[in-house]
């Protein structure tokens, strides 16, 4: 998409649920992948058998599956009818419509003056109600590196707008081509494929890389198991873990397990404010004698310890299976 840019990569653009991470978690007793792991979900095959036995059994199995998923993915965007939320709701719908229209204009205009300018980005973040705070960013290496973080909200990539460098964000197929073809945003987008990964391995590039190894969003109270995609670059570049926290008012969630991309965008734009805190952790180096899986687990454990949250055995592939099952049971 661009010349010498920084690159952000994610695989899934929906699912999961964002939730405010309590600030006290930073001081909680560290939890590693081996010490605290969320129990695995029931198999899709087992749920399918139950689903075929009758409506009541199907509903019971659906409830059981969703209960297991509640550790990572709340079932709805709004937890409760807070008085402040009820008063704000009419205005919030108008705000959401205006912000979504603003996003459309920015994508169609694709103007460097609007979306790749420090002053205009500050105005943009203000209009979107997004407050991004970076912590310990002095730990970021000057040389090319791989930035690895958890994924907790629809708007996580807005944190990269606050960095002085440009980024390229690799996305799964499905977004409108106009979105993936933007050239003049602080973040450019490109459909993820083998050729794109191989291109970024070119030693002549100065691009740094950012990846969401979970492949999808969670609620910030736990993490899905990291994929090994960033190992494509970790053999040659330092890996910098980033612990990402999100906070929204009134128990709002920008996404749920089965919500659509459009619904996720609406609730993200609906919230009067969203705070993103990105904490940079010390860079890590992959050694030749280390197994890839162990290094990936080590990187994820460092992030989990900073956040004080457990690591689940659920992978993005498993999540997609459960989403399909939940939608199938809903249609019965």
Q: List low-confidence stretches.
A: 1-37, 39-55
Q: Rg from C-alpha positions?
A: 20 Å
Distance between the termini: 44 Å
Strand content: 5-15%
Q: Give the number of helices.
A: 12
Which overall shape is indicated by the principal axes computed on the Cα atoms? globular
The chain-level mean pLDDT equals 80
Strand-and-helix sequence, N→C?
EEHHHHHEEHEHEHEHEHEHEH
Largest sheet: 8 strands, mixed
Label the structural class.
Answer: alpha/beta
* Number of individual domains: 1
Q: Give the oligomeric state.
A: single chain
- What is the share of helical residues? 25-40%
Strand order of the largest sheet: 3-9-8-4-7-1-5-6
Q: Count all strands and give the number.
A: 10
Description:
By secondary structure, the protein is an alpha/beta fold. The chain has helices at residues 44-51, 55-69, 83-109, 112-115, 118-128, 158-161, 177-180, 194-200, 231-234, 261-270, 292-307, 316-330; strands at residues 6-9, 37-38, 130-135, 146-149, 167-171, 187-191, 209-211, 239-247, 274-280, 311-312. The strands form 2 sheets. An 8-stranded mixed β-sheet has the order 3-9-8-4-7-1-5-6. Strands 2-10 form a two-stranded parallel sheet. Helix 1 (44-51) runs antiparallel to helix 2. The longest helix is centred in the first third of the chain and has 27 residues, at 83-109. It is globular. 39% of the residues are buried.
Would you kindly provide a brief summary of this structure?
By secondary structure, the chain is an alpha/beta fold.
Write the layout of secondary structure elements.
Blueprint: E1 6-9, E2 37-38, H1 44-51, H2 55-69, H3 83-109, H4 112-115, H5 118-128, E3 130-135, E4 146-149, H6 158-161, E5 167-171, H7 177-180, E6 187-191, H8 194-200, E7 209-211, H9 231-234, E8 239-247, H10 261-270, E9 274-280, H11 292-307, E10 311-312, H12 316-330
Parallel strand pairs: 1-5, 1-7, 2-10, 3-9, 4-7, 4-8, 5-6
Antiparallel strand pairs: 8-9
Helix pairs in contact: 1-2, 1-12, 2-12, 3-10
Organism: Coccomyxa viridis
Subcellular location: Membrane
Protein name: G585 protein
